[in-house]
Amino acid sequence: MKRDPSKNLARKPLSGMTEGAKNGASRPVRVAVQLRQEVARLIGRELADPRLEGLVVASAWLSADLRLAKVYFRIATTSEGAELDARRKEAEKALERASGRLRKAVTARLGLRVAPELRFVYDEGQDARDRIDQLLDEVKRESKSDDTE
């Protein structure tokens, strides 16, 4: 009995998968976007912790196997220095305390088989950008004062 070469299953692409999804790179990215939105919504609406006031979920990252998630957050405030550090530490404590509840809710809402471990990381990128803007403003002011003299 001869085999039909057109029925070779090894050559057929997996149904419903694109080239980007085959290498595993795009699914963690897509799920990370959904995870960020879901965590932000849960923190804003369902967690009544005053330590999370003004918390902004900046981004999320998921490992390729979807078992580890890093959620980057900022605090929308005009506080600086020690006061900002204190608020950040309080927010980290509140997030760690709520991580089990968030993990369970996110897993159910996103339809994941395995609940990813949530790690919360303060996003210092915005603080660095703000500091650079502040330094540039100082340089502009100094150059204007030098020009007028």
**Largest β sheet strand count, sense and barrel closure:** 3 strands, mixed
Please name the CATH architecture.
2-Layer Sandwich
> In order across it, which strands form the biggest sheet?
1-2-3
Could you tell me the strand content as a percent range?
A: 5-15%
Query: What Rg do the Cα atoms give?
Result: 23 Å
Low-confidence stretches: 8-21
Give the CATH superfamily. Answer: K homology (KH) domain
Helical content, roughly?
Answer: 40-55%
Count of discrete domains? 1
Rounded average pLDDT: 82
**At the first level of CATH, what is the class?**
Alpha Beta
What name is given to the CATH topology?
GMP Synthetase, Chain A, domain 3
Q: How would you describe this protein?
A:
With 149 residues, the chain is an alpha+beta fold. The protein has one domain: GMP Synthetase, Chain A, domain 3 (2-Layer Sandwich). It has 4 helices and 3 strands, in the order ααββαβα. The protein has helices at residues 19-22, 26-45, 81-110, 125-148, and strands at residues 55-62, 68-75, 117-122. It has a 3-stranded mixed β-sheet, covered by helices on one side. The model is unreliable at 8-21 (pLDDT under 50).
